[in-house]
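Record type: monomer structure entry
Structure origin: computed from sequence
Chain ID: A
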Amino acid sequence: MAMNTVGRPTTPVAHDAAAPATFSGAKGLLQPTSLIFETGAIDRTGVDLPPVKGIKPRLGGLARTSSTGNPGLSEPEAVRHYVRLSQRNYAIDLGMFPLGSCTMKHNARLNEKMARLPGFADVHPLQPISTVQGALRVMDELSHWLMTLTGMQAVALSPKAGAHGELCGMLAIRAALDARGQAHRRRVLVPESAHGTNPATAVQCGFVVDEIKAAPDGRVDLSDLKTKLGDDVAGIMLTNPNTCGLFERDIRIIADLIHEAGGYFYCDGANFNAIAGAVRPGDLGVDAMHINLHKTFSTPHGGGGPGSGPTVLSAALAPFAPVPYVVKRADGSLDLIEHEADSDGEPFGRMVAFHGQMGMYTRALTYMLSHGADGIRQASEDAVLNANYVQACLKAHMSPAFEGVCMHEALFDDSWLDGTGVTTLDFAKAMIDEGYHPMTMYFPLVVHGAMLIEPTESESKASLDAFIATMTSLAQAAKSGDTARFTGAPHHAPVKRLDETRAARKPVLKWTPPAEISQIAAE
């Protein structure tokens, strides 16, 4: 056992399954955590303020007369409660996050620092334009680089996330079709491996979805696509690289076929992080594409912060970009075009009251400027390299869904688990015991028992090797008949295996005091 300079062991001892239970319920430094309703009490508070005198209610008799039932805690109790909860939550700052099609990568702290600078962190949407010239310049420069990276003519910054960006692009397509007197074009082609938001967005915009089959190699079946073309086709919604982690080799042919049929090409930009700096979607014939700033350019993802899904538009769709957008005046100052009547184009409308994502814009622009053109391309290439390294190392133990190299994510099916009694879900639960967040399961739907792994460019070779070794060990255990290790997993998590179907269909969303539970049981 290795020893450090003061004589303490630096190599952890093996876990003692027979370790005695503690009186406090703690496990070393991991403290027990109760619900905040169980810890606090409604008759106490963490502040001590005198009653406010001389206040005349203005609620018209609607003032609350009874307790809300919210628990009261002191400040230390409240802080400890949420810190203890955070210790039970997985995070990218804790370990590798191999979710596929989600790009859970490191958020550079420099970006966070820039977003917190005065003038960005406290900017208000109702400030006079003359007082927010710096913020508008960030938006203008971000727009410039987004258009440069994609080879597109315009960008709408206001969409709040990927699906919102899809909505923006499809509304622009609808507006363009209507403007040229082709309101009869209401059929949108969507590959069967598409993100679920694609068909949902198309329907939300008043289109009818027509599914395109996947070829045996995981890409769009060109022959099926050709049979679906007609004078009622509005366009296609296609992800490239696609949700199987593969580049659509026939992308130019697909774009030409759609354009010849009179439609537009919407590209789902969820996987732009695999080609940023290397491929310009505009050169591939794309007319509209959203970009997840929180995936490609390292701003907080999902629950870690607000999303942002700017949508870039080709010259054909640029006139229909929504308001508001930034313009440069003759004197060099920047302004916002807030109303459709003030626009030189034909905006399809307004998607949001305000932009509201200055922190996202600042983080993304900081990422771009700190990396430069060569750095952004290297990030994309490293993401692809890491995914192929994972696939190459694991293909002897797991079964890749498709032959050949992948792009930014490695996709496996569950055929290698045949006869083991272990399912994709079981395997994912066992990953939790090993300290890893599970990969994406059962998606894309075109692959049976799918296991989609996206290591991103953030992970070092040492990190990937540790992950690969763990996955290999689990795969060997599954094949050797150690079924109990998987079907009972997770064994070491704060919460054990749940009935997830029941939890989804009958969620318990309200805490019920134990006294009420006893009373209900007695009745």
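Annotation 1: The longest strand covers residues 233-239.
Annotation 2: The mean pLDDT is 90.
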